[in-house]
Amino acid sequence: MWSVIIITLVVLVSVAAGNPFCFCTKEYIPVCGEDGKTYSNKCKMKCSGVEMAYEGVCNSFDNYCVCSKEYNPICGTDGQTYTNECNLKCSGIEISYEGKCTNTDRAHKETKSLAASVDSSPNMAADKIESKRK
């Protein structure tokens, strides 16, 4: 009797957690999940709650950017000039505008960075004076 209750509870907790018991074969027909992991078969991937990206083993280069050497400068929101849009996007930066960044863009970025550091520690001078008194 207790074993039936325990099994029922385990099943209920598993289903409530979104991970129902999955019974999959040990058949090896690899699939690549949208999470970039290779699963031994579609069933095991589905049991993990992942959708299929494509059949076969995940390519280790899926997470890498391959960009051309084409020179088409783009200014990023970080004030840096990138050789092309692909290189900019691979860096995880947004496009500010097409073309090379100007010295003004870099100076503006540095000013914002300096302002942020001053804002985060407005009493820096007072802190230094106080620490010298101790």
TrEMBL record:
- The superkingdom listed in its UniProt entry is Eukaryota
PROSITE patterns under this entry?
Answer: KAZAL_1 (PS00282), KAZAL_2 (PS51465)
Kazal-like domain location is 16-48, 52-103
Key word Signal present: yes
Signal peptide range = 1-18
The membrane-spanning stretches of this chain are: none
**Region listing for Disordered, in residue ranges:** 112-134
Q: Name one Pfam family in it.
A: Kazal_1
**Family annotation (InterPro entries):** Kazal_dom, Kazal_dom_sf, Serpin
Keywords associated with the record: Signal
- Name listed for the protein in its UniProt record: Kazal-like domain-containing protein
